[in-house]
Amino acid sequence: MKIKFFSFLMAAGFAALMFSGCSKMPQAEIDSAKAAIDSAKFAGANVYLPEALMELEDSLEAVMVNLESQSSKFIKNYGEVKEQLEKVTVFAHEVQDRTLAVKEEMKAETQAIIAEVNTVIAENTNLVLQAPKGKEGTSALQAIKSEIATIETHVIDAVSLYDNDDIMGAHTKALAAKDKAMSINEELKTVIAKYKGATRK
User: Fold this and answer.
1) Which of 136, 125, 113, 134 has its CA nearest to residue 188?
2) Is the backbone of residue 14 left (phi > 0), alpha (psi -120 to 50) or beta?
3) Which H/E stretch holds residue 87?
4) What letters, b where the CB count within 10 A reaches 16 and e where it falls short, cover 124-136?
5) Ranges of residues in the chain whose predicted pLDDT is under 70
């Protein structure tokens, strides 16, 4: 009889211990999830993966709603909340890793765009020398030279943004400079081709 009673006490004690663990506010898990989200933000998730970050923050908010619901109950059970917080933490680390990967890809792409723009600028400068210099051509070429100078400034700005770790800003600025440089390149080639065609006749 004593053995059965002792076994009952052991089982009851174990159950109480388990219940105590589930009824305790999971503060460590809350702090861990929030810290992981902050790390994702610091990595630049708001810039490079804004949708993923929004989903992440929504997930945490949903867990906190569940937490509030459990906190208001007489008998609290935070077991499910704890599991959800752990999932949020894992998700936050995934978002951070993906953010860093996207940023590295954009770095490489930005460097390539800047190099390409510089090549096109050099080609455009050479094409200006080949373009017809007639009365109307001279003023048009002056305007093109001014546009080329502006593009060069944009490239310098893009490099500065890149050096200051604003990769998204640098990418946007470099891409705009490329589009403008390519437009001028096509314009000059068209004008030169027409001029050469007219002189052959």
Assistant:
1) 125
2) alpha
3) helix 79-130
4) beebbeebbeeee
5) 1-22, 135-137, 198-201
pLDDT digits (tens, 9 = 90+) for 27-56: 999 999 999 999 999 999 999 999 999 999
**Which residue, among 143, 155, 146, has the nearest Cα to 179 in the 3D structure?**
155
Amino acid at 155: V
Q: pTM to 2 decimals?
A: 0.77
179's tokens: 């589009």
Cα–Cα distances (Å) from 182 to 46, 84, 117, 137, 148, in that order, read 31, 51, 8, 20, 11
- The Cα 164–Cα 149 span in angstroms is 23
User: Which residues fall within 8 angstroms of residue 145, CB to CB, at 6 or more apart?
Assistant: 128
CA atoms within 13 A on the CB side of 110: 25
What does DSSP assign to residue 134? S
Domain assignments of the chain as residue spans, ordered by start: 26-102, 103-200
pLDDT in tens, 104-123: 999 999 999 999 999 999 99
Which amino acid does the sequence have at 80?
E
Contact criterion met (CB below 8 Å) for 174 and 113 = yes
- Residue 3 tokens read as 């053995």
